[in-house]
């Protein structure tokens, strides 16, 4: 019995020892695997670090090259020089604007008069004779209309006047809308002057072809389809050129439009061309604001009345200066001896 028990203990001890060896082997295997994995990772880390260091060096080299190239480019540029001081911005007051705007047909007319005075030839007004009944008729045109402050004053005039609107430009873009506030209105057509430094965009010039003139007139007609009367803005050079005026009046006749001569030169060819095509010629008789002093404007209005009484009708042209429009607002008594009519009613 004792021997059997001793034998069992030996077998148990043997099994227990084997178990420890087994554990040791497993532990050794685990440590070996860990060491291998760690070693591989460490190797990869070292390699990655080397690669990153190399990449950083490459990147630094590229950046250095870019900086060197940029430095060379900057060195090749012209050296900076301090710009000249710009003149101060001038803000014009309303009176200064009106004075500046006054230099339009008036200036062009006065310059042309100086040149025409050397020539003996007078303006030949060719017109069909018209018999008028009742009071003499006076048509007053207001040229250069472009802004709402002008149309607001024109609407206060207590009798018929005809505003003549510029075609729209960047400087005065609202003329189409403003023109719709009037029963009868005209187009103020920019044409080339002998000496006027502030020409409107797309001013018709003596070098323009028939096709260019036709295109310009058709474009304006599309913008203002209800307006059929056009008078020239400046134009002392253009209206004195026979070929240019022949092209313009022919185009206007074909488009069923009427030309009104602002008569900015004594050498105007409007009478000859109108006679050639059998058209009635509308032509200015007097400017009412050669000078924008109110007393002188009233004096010019009385002269217009005298012309109308003598001939039966007259055409006067003014401009949308504050003084001119204010005089007209209060001029009903000055004009009591004439009928104030639209140009189309002459």
Describe the structure in your own words:
Helices cover 48% and strands 12% of the residues. It is of the alpha/beta class and 346 residues long. It folds into two domains: 1-81; 96-345, Alpha-Beta Barrel (TIM Barrel), CATH 3.20.20. The chain is rod-shaped.
- Structural class by sheet pairing and helices: alpha/beta
- What does the average pLDDT come to? 84
> Main beta sheet: strand number and arrangement?
9 strands, parallel
| Count of separate structural domains | 2
Radius of gyration: 47 Å
Order of helices and strands: HHHEHEHEHEHEHEEHEHE
Looking at the structure, what is the overall shape? rod-shaped
Distance between the termini: 158 Å
CATH topology annotation of the largest domain: TIM Barrel
**Unreliable sequence segments:** 86-93, 120-128
Quickly name the level 1 CATH class of the largest domain. Alpha Beta
What is the second-level CATH architecture of the largest domain? Alpha-Beta Barrel
Helix content: 40-55%
- Total number of strands: 9
CATH superfamily of the largest domain: Glycoside hydrolase/deacetylase
Give the number of helices: 10
Strand content: 5-15%
Summarize the structure.
With 346 residues, the chain is an alpha/beta fold.
């Amino acid at each position: 019995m004792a021997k059997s028990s001793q034998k069992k203990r030996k077998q148990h001890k043997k099994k227990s020892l084997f178990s420890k060896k087994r554990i040791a082997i497993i532990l050794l295997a685990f440590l070996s695997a860990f060491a291998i994995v760690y070693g591989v990772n460490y190797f990869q880390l070292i390699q990655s670090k080397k690669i990153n260091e190399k990449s950083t060096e490459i990147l630094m080299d590229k950046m250095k090259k870019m900086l060197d190239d940029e430095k060379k480019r900057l060195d090749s540029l012209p050296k900076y020089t301090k710009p000249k001081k710009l003149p101060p911005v001038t803000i014009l007051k309303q009176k200064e604007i009106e004075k500046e705007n006054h230099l339009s047909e008036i200036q062009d007319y006065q310059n042309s008069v100086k040149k025409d005075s050397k020539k003996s030839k007078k303006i030949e007004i060719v017109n069909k004779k018209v018999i008028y009944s009742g009071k003499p008729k006076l048509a007053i045109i207001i040229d250069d209309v472009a802004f709402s402050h002008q149309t607001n004053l024109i609407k206060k005039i207590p009798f018929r006047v005809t505003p003549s609107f510029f075609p729209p430009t960047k400087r005065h873009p609202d003329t189409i809308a403003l023109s719709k506030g009037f029963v009868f209105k005209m187009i103020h057509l920019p044409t080339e002057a002998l000496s006027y430094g502030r020409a409107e965009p797309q001013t018709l010039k003596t070098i323009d072809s028939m096709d260019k003139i036709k295109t310009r007139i058709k474009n304006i007609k599309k913008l203002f389809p209800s307006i059929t009367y056009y008078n020239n803005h400046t134009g002392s050079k253009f209206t004195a050129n026979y070929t240019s005026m022949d092209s313009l009046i022919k185009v206007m006749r074909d488009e069923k439009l009427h030309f009104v001569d602002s008569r900015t030169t004594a050498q105007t060819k409007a009478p000859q061309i109108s006679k050639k095509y059998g058209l009635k010629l509308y032509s200015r008789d007097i400017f009412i604001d050669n000078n924008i002093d109110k007393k002188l404007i009233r004096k010019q209005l009385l002269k217009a009345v005298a012309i109308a009484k003598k001939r039966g009708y007259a055409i006067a042209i003014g401009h949308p200066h504050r003084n001119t429009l204010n005089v007209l607002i209060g001029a009903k008594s000055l004009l009591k001896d004439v009928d104030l009519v639209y140009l189309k009613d002459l």
